[in-house]
Amino acid sequence: MIVIVLNRRYAPLRSRPADAAGVTSFVRSLIAAAKVANLPVAMILFDRDEAGWRERGSEDCDLHDCPAVLLPFSFTADREIIAARFDAALKRFGCGQIHIYAQSGVYAPYLPDRAAVFTHHGPFVDEVEKALGAWEAVRAYDGGEEKITALRRSQQEGLRELKAKPAFLSLEISPIQVQSLLRADVPRSRVRFLMPTAPYLPEAEPLPESAERWLADRSETRLFTACARIDSFKNLSEIVEACKVLESGGKQASAFIAAGGAPDADRYRDHVRGAGLQRSSIYVSARLRPGQLNSLFTRAAAWAPFVFPSKYETLGMTPLQAKYHGCSVLCRDDRAHVGVANFLKSHELYQNGPVGLASSLAAWRPETCQGPRSTPTIGGQDHFHEILRSVVEWR
Q1: Residue 64 and residue 44: Cα distance in Å, rounded?
Q2: Deepest of 17, 105, 236, 252, by most Cβ within 10 A of its Cβ?
Q3: CATH code for position 321
Q4: For residues 299 and 290, is the Cβ–Cβ distance under 8 A?
Q5: In contact, 236 and 311? CB cutoff 8 Å
Q6: Quick one: pLDDT band at residue 15, thresholds 50, 70, 90?
Q7: Count of domains in the chain?
Q8: pTM
Q9: What pLDDT, in 10s, does the model give residues 312-328?
């Protein structure tokens, strides 16, 4: 049995709509690959609860695709208590050989001393500080100094465990993560690189009605889609400023922004309204379900590139998904801080911030699109089976 260990916020729960976010989509694809390989899957979900982790017991959790146990957790928790709960959760899944695959090394101190494979989807705080600066890192994590301090401590402890325990392997799909682990003196023998691929998106489904109306009204306008937030990671301001550059040259652009939840979308709309755009139009959607993201990428392939303006991403799965569904991609040319930039071609990268983005948008033509699914996933269709094979074979 494969036991996937991750933060509850990334789990594909029944109690909330399907999430197109990178880690959640990655986990869905991994579960699907395990089912194809006839490997049973279960999940242990760490539910971060700084106040009540000691009082709360573990509980079964309602997932679509596999059994799961919810485990109250705190970075200040007693390691022995959490490890004992983890071991008890494993026993609830029954007998047989269990292989552990964990989303992050921060959980390493709390796992029993047994073979486990990790993949670091989230960035290390120290690496983000080097890329963006200390204050921008705090803003990007949206939790203040206290959260940064707790996260840094847990990451440092996790790295110590990865270095100290030969039973732990780090299987990475981002060159940025590989380099950061090696800089932290994790032995090279316990760090492996696997070429990334786009997580699968389910069948296309209709976009929200307001989005359909907005798209219908933009038939005469240069359009592009973007994954952006106000914070320093996703860099919504670069999209707005690029529109201003295009306007100053007598052009106009329309951008479709996929935001987070409803409160986030409202905040983004306020940000865009206050930007002073004259002729350009930016539509801000709440988070799209995976099928809607499929629909947007497939439809946009004929009239828009997918813009990925993020300042820091250990990988960046969404551009890979966009390419797989026929969209051309424009990504910041920063291979040191945006992992996916290492796997894109020169014409898919832009430099010089908003000015460079505006220039690339102005030069973009529909014929640069290659059509739906004409671009194979970078790691090939067997990517998730390779992950599973590495997990099962690791001793």
Answers
A1: 14
A2: 105
A3: 3.40.50.2000
A4: no
A5: no
A6: low
A7: 2
A8: 0.86
A9: 888 888 888 888 888 88
What average pLDDT does the chain have? 84
Same structural domain for residues 112 and 239? no
- Mapping DSSP onto H, E and C, the string for the chain reads CEEEEEEHHHCCECCCCCCCCHHHHHHHHHHHHHHHCCCCEEEEEEEECCCCCCCCCCEEECECCCCEEEEEECCCCCHHHHHHHHHHHHHHCCCCCCEEEECCHHHHHHCCCCCEEECCCCCCHHHHHHHHCHHHHHHHHCCHHHHHHHHHHHHHHHHHHHHHCCCEEEEECCHHHHHHHHHCCCCHHHEEECCCCCCCCCCCCCCCHHHHHHHHCCCCCCEEEEECCCCCCCCHHHHHHHHHHHHHCCCCCEEEEECCCHHHHHHHHHHHHCCCCCCCEEEEECCCCHHHHHHHHHHHCCCCCEEECCCCECCCHHHHHHHHCCCCEEEECCCCCEHHHHHCCHHHEECCHHHHHHHHHHHCCHHHCCCCCCCCCCCCCCHHHHHHHHHHHCC
| Domain extent at residue 347 | 209-368
Q: In the numeric block, which tokens belong to residue 305?
A: 């590139």
Are 184 and 221 within one domain?
Answer: no
Tokens 């989230």: give the residue: 122
The two three-digit tokens of residue 42, written as one number: 């279960």
Q: Are residues 102 and 45 in the same domain?
A: yes
